[in-house]
Amino acid sequence: MGRLTSVERKLRENCYQTEKITADPDQDFFNLTLELRSQEERLAALQIQRDELLIGLKGLLESLKNQATRLAQLEGRLSEVLERNGRQKMTGSGKVEEPVSSNITPREYNEACRRGQTNRGGKKRGKILEGHIQPRAEGSICNVDSMVLFPSASAENYVTFSLSLPALLELSLCLWLRVETPHIGTLLSYATDDSDNQLVLYGHKSSSSDPVYRRLQVSALLDAHWHHVCVLWSSIHGRFWHYNDHLLASSGSDFRKGWEIPGGGSVVLGQEQDSVGGGFDPAEGFAGQMAGFRLWNRVLSPLEVEGVAAGRGVPRGVVLGMEDIKEVHGAVHHVACDCLEYCG
To answer: Pentraxin (PTX) domain location, by residue (predicted)?
Structure first.
């Protein structure tokens, strides 16, 4: 009798374990659905990473091509200087002038203009102002290369470049600004044969609700002090970011997603182009100082933006910068100043 009871107990335990192990079809289907959804999310994330890697590779190739072009230009300029120096030595016609870094301030420049001491002829190529020879304190932000001074907003005052832009799916644009006027106007414009507004960067007191354009809030920049401004955009994510003095001032989404900025157009500082390389309007001009302008073919990280603003070098991927300035027009002057503290 005891053995029979033991057998019955074991049978009950086996039945209980069998019921416990038996899978619930509904639960299995739910688990399978969750697993499929998780795999889809992972696949989507991998596709985004792949797209970003492809764009990064494309940007790197464009950067290498751009660096090769710059190197060829520098070699050409070096050959010209060496040849000119050789001719000067042979003919004894005087020494060749070297670009001189300047300590002159915008106020001193404007006073010189009023006294008629500064030549304000038509076009000037990279004119370097000669300032007072004074001992200078060591600079801390020394990645700016040079500065351009726009004494007034005029259709004649603008800057052109020796290079164009490659096709861009992402970009970062950073520069130092010093403005004393109540508005900023156009900082940069990029025009092609298909559109004179492929890329326009300008400041305005109020924001715009136009879905194609975004205006930058600039009221904090109009205090006659230097400010660092960065604007970043990604076609992949349709997002943009706007930094003032390395702090995020604004950002947005659903902005020009999937759009590519075409290459080969005309880049101008200080004026908006209503046609390629022209069609300027004084009301859209810039008055003030710009320094350290650079444009990258990728989105800089917040740490990189902070590093540029602090003078800690220049991140990779630059496709256009101050060193590519070809010509300054009107009353604009190009001042050599490696450090921001020397730019006036």
So the answer is: 144-341
Residue whose pair of structure tokens reads 């990604």 in the numeric block = 234
Number of domains in the chain: 2
DSSP 142-207: ----EEEEE-S--TT-EEEES-----BSEEEEEEEEE--SS--EEEEEEE-SS-TTSEEEEEESS-
For the chain, the residue count is: 344
Tokens describing residue 210: 């136009």
Chain segment 13-36, per-residue pLDDT in tens: 766 665 555 556 666 667 777 778
The number of beta carbons lying within 10 Å of the beta carbon of residue 101 is 17
Count CA atoms closer than 13 A to 57's CA, side-chain side.
6
Calpha distance 279→166 (Å, rounded): 23
Instruction: State the pLDDT at residue 44.
Output: 79
Distances (CA, A) of 301 to 20, 216, 268: 53, 20, 26
CATH assignment at residue 285: 2.60.120.200
Residues 233 and 307 reside in one and the same domain: yes
